[in-house]
Amino acid sequence: MASMADEDLTAADTAASTRTTARRPAAGAAPEPDAARRQRLLLIVGLVIAALNLRPAITSLGPLMKEVRDDLGMSGTLAGLLTSVPTLCFAVFGLAAPRLARRWGPAAVVCAGMVAITAGLAVRPYAGGTVGFLALSALALAGIAVSNILMPVIVKRWFPDRVGPTTGIYSMAMSAGTSLAAAATVPMTDALGGSWRLGLGIWALLGAAAALVWLAVARSRTARTTNAADRQAAPTAGTAPAGAGVRITRSPTAWALAVFFGLQATGAYITMGWMPQIFRDAGVSASTAGVLLAMTMLMGVPLSFVLPRLAARLPNQGILVIVLAAFGLTGYTGLWLAPAAGAWVWALLLGVSNCAFPLALTMIGMRARSGAGVVRLSAFAQSTGYLLSIPGPLLVGALYERTGGWDLPIALMAALMVPQAVAGVLAGRDRTVEDETGPAAPTA
């Protein structure tokens, strides 16, 4: 599944390492010139505004799902399909991102991704039917998918001496965009006359601003230099990329990581797509339901800094997996027993549980010894994981429509925490995929 992108990913990883060495300033080197500082500032602005756009297409929809379904005549099953579209797009279009970046350069692809987000968000409320709404949602999500994959690549390539702080800024912006869309969509809809179409479509303005910034980045000297270096680093015909000896599908740890990643993504997208509806059906107002979802998403801001650092200090990350699963099980139990009475507590607990995402990314980096091994493991775990997560939101929508309530869907969400914890404990063991895999077949 990851083989389509392995060669390009490995070549890009090699090129990034070369540029990292070349850019590292020598001791006593003069400060970078004003032009370079302006260029880095432009890139920082670009990263922040792009990250702000990576989730509003998803989290702005949840608080208005009832209005969208009623107006478009959308069944619960189709609404569940809509909440599954993000993971499908991330799995399918994410695989194309490295190859597109090799051809056009990462900055140009991110710019195109921002344009796709803008077009999808601006037009989908006026598509006139469920099919058009789904198709234009997929367009916006395709833009998110390629940008989502390339953001860490851009951080590594253009900020090799500030990877940690830059990643922190980017992660915080993404969490902020997620929370902002969840909290502000209903108030903005009310301010715009109560039209859900305007309330969803207004987020296209943020995408348009990002597209303009990334157009400037793509035309900059830094981007052109990066593209030229990538083309020079491309493997020649008949040669195998570095790290081809790792047969990732033979690694139990790789499969455990893929399952863990997929199940945590299932929980996250069920939460983003359905939690506001659960609270609204329990008697919570639409605006409060949006704020509750925002609080759940906002938990990712501080914990995305704490969890990776803590995980890196532990030889085995299983204990962290179990703690997060315990938060999730408690939150789902409360949501089942008293959704309105303890709404703020359940939202907080589920927000902590959903922070399994940065933990999964950290474990991917720790379960391989070489850079090429990390690239292959990341491509396999994420693409496979996103594919595994597709049925979850769809099944929740179908169960909700069939039973007319949330008892069975919430029971399913809670039950999925058990295999997630088991897979996470297996993935968190102190070993690498290189220890578990044999040599790959010879390359022709």
TrEMBL record:
This is CP family cyanate transporter-like MFS transporter. It comes from Streptomyces netropsis (Streptoverticillium netropsis). It comes from the Bacteria. It is a multi-pass membrane protein. It is found in: Cell membrane. GO terms for cellular component: plasma membrane. The chain crosses the membrane at residues 41-58, 78-97, 104-127, 133-155, 167-186, 198-217, 254-274, 286-307, 319-338, 344-365, 377-400, 406-427. The keyword Transmembrane helix applies. Keywords: Membrane, Transmembrane, Transmembrane helix. One of its GO terms (molecular function) is transmembrane transporter activity. The lineage of its organism: Bacteria, Bacillati, Actinomycetota, Actinomycetes, Kitasatosporales. Residues 11-33 have a biased composition (Low complexity). Residues 1-33 are annotated as: Disordered. Residues 1-10 have a biased composition (Acidic residues).
